[in-house]
Design brief:
The protein has about 500 residues and is α+β, with helices and mostly antiparallel strands. Strands 7, 8, 9, 10, 11, 12, 13, 14, 15, 16 and 17 form an eleven-stranded mixed beta sheet that branches. A hairpin with a 4-residue loop joins strand 1 and strand 2. Helix 12 packs across helix 13, helix 12 packs across helix 14 and helix 13 runs antiparallel to helix 14. The C terminus is likely disordered. The termini are far apart. The protein contains 15 helices and 19 strands.
Length: about 500
């Protein structure tokens, strides 16, 4: 059989490729690669009529859309005064700068780097923002203040495609890193563009950035994701830990909650970021979900729908930690370069899962969700079972937040424990794990106080037995090779039998 001949396009006479940006001539209706005719993807939306090089001698150059307003995402709309200001537009940003907000000290702790540690979160939880003005003591690695966007390009690669937001339109498109650098370094600019999702874990830039020590100690990917998965596993380690944000003056990101209820750390290398933050109360989250679902979302400043919205400025050298579920928007008053990352942790398990559940109800596109979220939660649950068993055998009480969090986990894990459910770990016996966690939580609910010390447990004849795993765990195994299961012949009085070993 003869191979079907591919249709050729453009001046270069090459076939169409899905990754290439192309533009159609409004005269001859031929398609052209943007690279071949000098048109960037972000410029296409501003073109009223495009004339290719072949048609320009007769019909003249391309024509641009005429600006008719400064307050709508479609700036070609007639300005008859009847339509509201939309987020991200020039008029919106100017009005936002004039608004006043309550002092952020009500919801924020200013700490020294050395004070941001596990003892702080164990004692106070992670429900307030934390601002550190100097990075000393954080155990964090970031590039120096002299680092530039051109340096970012040199580490991630000039041809790396990145997601870019057209702020005035609140719409996104793709750009090559070299194109972004050229845009960022050229003034005056005709558009306000923003980059907030360049994840660089798999690039040489990753070697220059390491999250604060306490983040690495809390981060579920670091503490619960298996060091090694089965060779035939379809799971991939989530890449959400290292982001580079590059915004120009007057960039604006509308109100959102970070994916999967993750918490975030941000460190400003240059410029400034202003966060408008709202606590994740049940009422505020319900209002947020309704706002996101509204057809007029872009015309309503969410901060005016709730009783409390705070303003927090983050300056060069500052590091900000945002807890789970906080609803926030971000204004960039100066050209900025920022590094940060997202992480799940044990201090707000229930709220993390509620945010994920809200994302499902809102039918959030998959590319905006936390990758491998369910699998990571199952791995965390498996390790929490081992931790609870350790407390059980030692006769000590686990932190109440952990028992509460694991109990809240159970509702979601039961819902996910279905045949052909996506994003499930292949090497975890989920049904058995759920049964053991349920019994363990029930026992600690009935016995909230420690019954005896570890030493007293030994005197009572409590024997810990480690059940070794075979090289190829059976389907019934619910423990990681790195987390041995425990079993004991001791059963405290007036309690159900201890959960059986996995």
């Amino acid at each position: 059989m003869s191979r079907k001949k591919e249709k050729l396009y453009c001046l270069c006479r090459k076939p169409y490729h899905p990754s290439d940006f192309m533009i159609e001539c409004d005269v001859c209706e031929e398609w052209f690669h943007g690279d071949c005719v000098g048109i960037e993807e972000y410029q296409a939306a501003d073109i009223e009529s495009y004339h290719c090089p072949n048609c320009q001698p007769k019909y003249g150059p391309l024509t641009l859309k005429r600006r008719r307003n400064w307050h709508r995402h479609d700036y070609s709309e007639l300005n008859d005064g009847s339509k509201a200001i939309q987020s991200g537009t020039v008029m919106f940003v100017n009005k936002l700068k004039q608004k006043t907000f309550p002092d952020s000290s009500e919801i924020l702790d200013k700490l020294q780097g050395s004070e941001v540690n596990l003892d702080y979160f164990e004692g106070r939880g992670f429900g307030r923002l934390v601002l550190v003005e100097e990075k000393a003591g954080l155990g964090m690695t970031v590039p120096p203040a002299s680092f530039t966007v051109a340096d970012v390009e040199s580490y991630v690669g000039s041809m790396r495609e990145i997601d870019v937001i057209d702020v005035a339109k609140q719409d996104d498109f793709r750009m090559k890193m070299r194109e972004w650098t050229e845009y960022y370094e050229t003034k005056p600019r005709t558009k306000v563009l923003n980059v907030i999702s360049l994840e660089f874990s798999e690039t040489p830039l990753a070697g220059l950035v390491e999250a604060p020590l306490v983040v690495r100690q809390m981060d579920w990917i670091e503490t619960h994701w298996p060091k090694k998965l089965p060779e035939d596993s379809s799971l991939v380690r989530p890449r959400v830990q290292k982001y580079c944000l590059m915004g120009v003056k007057d960039s604006y990101t509308d109100f959102h909650v970070d994916f999967g209820g993750t918490s975030v750390w941000y460190h400003v290398i240059k410029g400034e970021k202003i966060f408008y933050v709202i606590p994740p109360t049940d009422d505020n989250l319900a209002c947020y979900e309704q706002w996101v679902s509204s057809s007029t979302q872009s015309e309503v400043f969410f901060g005016e729908l709730v009783s409390e919205c705070y303003k927090c400025s983050v300056l060069p050298g500052n590091t900000l930690f945002i807890p789970t579920g906080w609803i926030h928007s971000v204004l960039t008053p100066k050209d900025s370069l920022v590094f940060g990352g997202n992480f799940l942790h044990r201090y707000k398990i229930g709220l993390q899962l509620k945010v994920h559940d809200m994302e499902m109800r809102l039918e959030t596109p998959r590319r905006f969700l936390h990758p491998s979220y369910k699998a990571l939660t199952w791995f965390a649950a498996r390790d929490f079972l081992s931790e609870l068993k350790g407390h059980y055998h030692a006769g000590t009480a686990p932190p109440s937040y952990l028992v509460d969090g694991v109990e809240e986990m159970l509702e979601f894990l039961h819902a996910w424990n279905r045949p052909k459910e996506s994003d499930m770990p292949e090497n975890v016996s989920t049904s058995k794990l759920l049964d053991q966690i349920s019994r363990m939580v029930q026992w600690f609910r009935n016995n909230p106080q420690p019954l005896f010390s570890a030493k007293e447990g030994e005197e009572k004849g409590l024997k810990l037995k480690i059940t070794k795993q075979s090289k190829k765990p059976k389907e019934t195994s619910s423990t990681s090779p790195h987390h041995p299961s425990f079993s004991s012949s001791y059963s405290p009085p007036h309690s159900p039998p201890p959960p059986s070993s996995p």
